[in-house]
Each structure stands twice: as C-alpha cells, then as structure tokens.
Design brief:
This protein is mainly alpha-helical and 104 residues long. The chain has 4 helices and no strands.
C-alpha cells in the first residue's frame, strides 16, 4: 500500500481564465512572440502583455506622454514602462483611461 493520495491539491492559485478562454500566461506568450527575446522569463512576457494592453487602451487619446520614445533617459523609460504595466492590470479599458486622466 502506498502512502500518498492521488487527489492532492495543486500548489498555488489556479490560473485565471480570460474572456478569450486562455490563461494570462498563454495570452502573454502569444503577445510576446514578436516583442520579447527568446530567453526572457515568464514574468517579462506577462509584463509585455500588460504593457501592450495599456497601449491599446490609450492609443486613441492624448496620452503620448506615457509612450516610451526616448531611449536616452533610462530612468523615465523604466518609470513609464512600470506605469503602463500596472495600468494594463486593470480589467476595464475605460477604467484605464479614467485613471490616466486623473494622473494628469
């Protein structure tokens, strides 16, 4: 007789399933195919997914100050990237726009 159960709970939280039917990691892998390097981590891919989600939400308005276009200022580039990644974590596109307009 063996000393382990076949019905063990898996460690960690279950993956969130998005509206498309994929998990966040699957969406991030699809998004990062053309953007990320081959040897980047899963966290980098997820952050690129969130950053592109925020870009898509803010593309139509006057939010050009958040888009990264200056490679010479490294600290502002990192700050903008972090802001976009955290904005992308919000679920609703209108909530993203509302949050950015309150930052201004």
């Amino acid at each position: 007789m063996e000393n382990f159960s076949e019905n063990k709970r898996k460690r960690g939280r279950p993956f969130k399933v998005l509206a498309s039917g994929n998990t966040r990691n699957q969406e991030a892998n699809e998004c990062a195919k053309g953007l990320a390097e081959e040897n980047c981590t899963d966290r980098t891919k997820v952050n690129l997914y969130y950053q592109s989600k925020a870009h898509g939400a803010l593309w139509d308005g006057d939010y050009s100050y958040l888009f990264i276009n200056d490679d010479s200022k490294c600290t502002s580039k990192i700050k903008k990237r972090t802001i976009l990644q955290n904005l992308g974590r919000l679920e609703d596109v209108e909530l993203i726009r509302k949050t950015v307009s309150s930052l201004n």
